[in-house]
Design goal:
Oligomer: homodimer
Structural class of chain A: alpha/beta
CATH topology of chain A: Rossmann fold
Radius of gyration of chain A: 18 Å
CATH superfamily of chain A: P-loop containing nucleotide triphosphate hydrolases
Strand content of chain A: 15-25%
Number of strands of chain A: 9
Order of helices and strands of chain A: EHEEEHEEHEHEHHEHH
Largest sheet of chain A: 5 strands, parallel
């Protein structure tokens, strides 16, 4: 038996970070795949926990060494997922969450179509704009560009198996947890238990 | 948007009847597809609610008229699923549960691979034997035959997407509900809502 790789993606400002923290707090037997990035650390972020923050030089070296399941540039920064970490986690019975942008999710799903993919959507573009302004960690100059990118990303919802609309945080977190628990009931996850039942047959 | 067809199957004595009654009581927006059968009505069963009980002559007439999505014989009795009823139910937003034997499930899944298929397993064959003896609506003579049939059916678990082991009723009912709710979050079920979000983009 092995864990599921749970791919969670959303346009920026979709609120997936908060949702994932809630899932890690409430759902048992689940871990988080920490991505590498070259972007600047934001206030409150912890190196090695939120991301592994590296220089562009180091990132290029990791690419050369084939260390990434996927990598991509978003708004001029590199983001990458370590092959080794994902393999180590799903070899056990724990699920692992991969928080990743839409391009990256698309690349991982090509390699691992059995992954559980979930797309988090904002309830509307008006609400997405408000969230981006409220966060405002980047210049507001590129707000229009970000919204346009988000629109293009939302159009790709059908590359994901599940869609969760993040209107109310509690509802969305419950929906996310429901998907994760249901996917553990997939027959492939229950092979060992079912073999025990078959072995109990006394011919 | 349309509802999901939820196929629930188990070997006899697997306890799916009780579980389904629990789901119909606790999960909103879900109905039950009543099958036709030629078997005798059991104590407590209601014609038109548990099954539509018909003569073998009538059943053969319905087959002739192409009224069944699938039909099968189990222990010498006919069981069949009405095309019309299933189509009517899933055209709305309601899910519909189809309680069906393993042969029948297999036939429906060939025609409707997008159906959500769930296999209910007994926790062991010892427990299955106890349940069959406790129910004892049929001669106990064919108990050994039933158990052998059940064994052959359990081996077909991998034809179903999900597997639920019915050890504790409450746990199994919760797992069943979790699967049904999670499948409503499939992106194909959320097309209309996502289109509204896309339309909210103010270019």
């Amino acid at each position: 038996m092995k864990g599921n790789l749970i791919i969670i993606s959303s346009p920026s400002g979709g609120g997936k970070g908060t949702l994932i923290r809630e899932i890690l707090r409430t759902v048992p037997d689940i871990g988080y795949s920490v991505s590498y990035t070259t972007r600047k650390m934001r206030d409150g972020e912890v190196d090695g926990k939120d991301y592994i923050f590296v220089s562009e030089e180091k990132f290029r070296e990791l690419i050369e060494n084939g260390e990434f399941l996927e990598y991509a540039t978003v708004h001029g920064n590199f983001y990458g997922t370590s092959v080794a970490q994902v393999q180590k986690e799903i070899a056990g019975e724990r699920d692992i969450i991969l928080e990743i942008d839409v391009q990256g999710a698309s690349a991982v799903l090509k390699n691992l179509p059995e992954a559980v993919s979930i797309f988090i959507l904002p309830p509307s573009f008006e609400r997405l704009r408000e969230r981006l302004i409220k966060r405002a960690t980047e210049d507001l100059d590129d707000l229009a560009l970000r919204l346009r990118n988000s629109f293009d990303e939302v159009k790709r919802f059908d590359e994901f198996k599940y869609a969760v609309i993040n209107d109310d945080l509690e509802t969305a977190a419950n929906q996310l947890a429901t998907i994760i628990i249901a996917e553990r009931l997939n027959h492939t996850r229950q092979m060992t238990a079912i073999q025990c039942i078959l072995d109990s047959f006394d011919d």
